Amino acid sequence: MEFSSKLLERAVNEMSQLPGIGKRTALRLVLHMLRQPEAQTFQLADALKTMRQDIKFCKNCHNISDIDICEICSNPHRDETLICVVEDVRDVMAIENTSSFKGLYHVLGGKISPMDGIGPADLFIESLVLKVKEGGVKELIFALSPTMEGDTTNFYIYKQLQGYQVETSTIARGISVGNELEYTDEITLGRSILNRIPFESSLKS
Length: 205
Hints:
The protein contains 8 helices and 7 strands, in the order αααβββαβαβαβαβα. The chain is an alpha/beta fold. The protein has 2 domains: 6-54, Helicase, Ruva Protein, domain 3 (Orthogonal Bundle); 72-204, Dna Topoisomerase Vi A Subunit, Chain: A, domain 2 (3-Layer(aba) Sandwich), CATH 3.40.1360.10. The strands form 2 sheets. Strands 4-3-5-6-7 form a 5-stranded mixed sheet. Strand 5, helix 6 and strand 6 (167-170) form a beta-alpha-beta unit. Helix 1 (6-15) packs across helix 2 (23-35). The termini are far apart. 25% of the residues are buried. The mean pLDDT is 88.
């Protein structure tokens, strides 16, 4: 792709690094911004810069937040004895949209995937096990996507918790195997949380 401006080329190259954005789409977006009022482009740039500089990760659950402890963890009406284990912040948003879960979350930051070079030490598993060790947690709900990597991660955590007084359950398989959680419709996802099953039962299926 030939560019008449090095500034345009740089902007397109940077934009095309975003997931799902190819060079042609990046060019269309950049040209669109050039046609908008200058202030609008500056507002976008400032929002991205401010987000990158000031965004925090909750010290309790690792969810994205504006403060040290996110609004979910600091909400006194949430059930602190019930923790839903998810892969990333998109899954928290998806489950929250169902209005079916009133506990807390624990964001792992990914799932175990040897093919991608991601092991247990690369995820927030140790802090989850520590929460259980400290007591107060009655049930963990494994809500990772029903993929091979998700199941592997669930099983690894389950083995780490052997011997501790905590129930482990997994979301009901109304969600198609291999699907990512964030793309599941809210009704199906909400029902899968409410109709969760003991994790041991999922190992036998």
